[in-house]
Amino acid sequence: MNEHFISVIVAVKNEEEHIERCLLSLINQNYPKDSYCIVVVDGLSVDRTTNIVNEYRSRYSNFIRLYHNPKGWQAAGRNLAIENEEQSDLVAYIDGHCIAEKNWLKNLSDVLLHSDVDVAGVGSIIKSPSDESGLGRAIDRVFSTTLGAAGTSYIPKKELTVVDTVPFVLYRKEALFKVGLYDEEMRYGEDYSLNFKLRRAGYRLLVNPDAKVYYYKRKNVAEFYNQMYNYGVTKAILGKKYPASLKSIHYLPSFSLAVLLSFGFLGIVVSEALYVLGFIIAAYLCLICLTSIYFSVKEGNWDYIISIPTAYLVEHIGYSVGFIVGFRKQGWIQ
Q1: Model pTM greater than 0.90?
Q2: Does residue 239 share a domain with residue 205?
Q3: In tens digits, what is the pLDDT along the chain, a chain of 334 residues?
Q4: What's the CA gap between 199 and 216, in Å, rounded?
Q5: Is the dihedral of CA 327, 329, 330, 331 positive or negative?
Q6: 77 and 202 inside one domain
Q7: Where, by residue number, does the polypeptide cross the bilayer (predicted)?
């Protein structure tokens, strides 16, 4: 047994489609079974999620644990697990619609345990599962570009890198308690706010490109729009609560949308404004279409010609609208 013990937290709600594959990927980790456990926290699921988890608990009674999260959202669920899992000094998290590569825990712990104590956590890179939906694959390609992932750490890294934020992290539990754990007011964006608090406290975060997680993304336009809208609202809330957490790039999509609308209204009285508006829109559409052609040729997937521009448009519009709505909710604009 290692001297360190890891609690792998899986906060879920209505994940019956994916939870079994997630659990199997964690059970089959290339890591000593007496050095980690799986902690599922269910947020009021109304499908078969808890039934599936309990089936595996019956086979792995001391290895898989189940908590019930009455608040429902992830930040509260993860805090519940962290506070109740007293035997662990390290905590990792992964979502229920993810599959961890076999060496995921090993690759995270090898780096964290050989890093200075000011490294609070080591995170993963996101890959597309082999059976990812067409839109999900397009979203993955969009997030791998600067235009689609500006201000985030989703752009693939080729070496161990210091980052502002990162998904699917193995943390030192001591560092989490020092910054007050997850902010339970955050229904979305809880990872970003936690990582900001850690950096503000003087800690560093790393991403290890050898730690891979296969992540199922939204399967249709409506789900993806809602996700991006909620991210936008959350970023505005973060900007009010932690002003230093936002960079200029976070304001850019909403600023761009406001500029486009302004030129549109101005064009009613000044026709030249419509030419400027048309040029901006044409340049944007040209850029995303060229990106779709690049990935189509590179991967031989001509569905990208439609799906990648669609993903860009939904991402940018959803985030921009959410950000503006969030600002209004926070009283920044009337």
Answers
A1: no
A2: no
A3: 568 999 999 999 999 999 999 999 999 999 999 999 999 999 999 999 999 999 999 999 889 999 999 999 899 999 999 999 989 999 999 999 999 999 999 999 999 999 999 999 999 999 989 899 999 999 999 988 888 876 555 666 778 999 989 999 999 999 999 999 999 988 888 998 999 999 999 999 999 999 999 999 988 999 999 999 998 888 888 887 877 776 666 666 667 777 777 767 767 777 777 887 788 889 889 999 999 999 999 999 999 999 999 999 999 999 889 988 887 776 554 4
A4: 28
A5: positive
A6: yes
A7: 249-269, 275-297
User: What backbone phi and psi angles, to 5 degrees, belong to 327?
Assistant: -65, -40
Which of 202, 219, 236 is at the close of a domain? 219
Number of neighbours of residue 106 by Cβ within 10 angstroms:
16
**What is the span of the domain harbouring residue 121?**
6-219
Residue 160's CATH number: 3.90.550.10
Q: Are 76 and 180 in contact (CB under 8 A)?
A: no
Residues 110 and 197 in one domain: yes
Q: Per the domain annotation, does 334 fall within a domain?
A: no
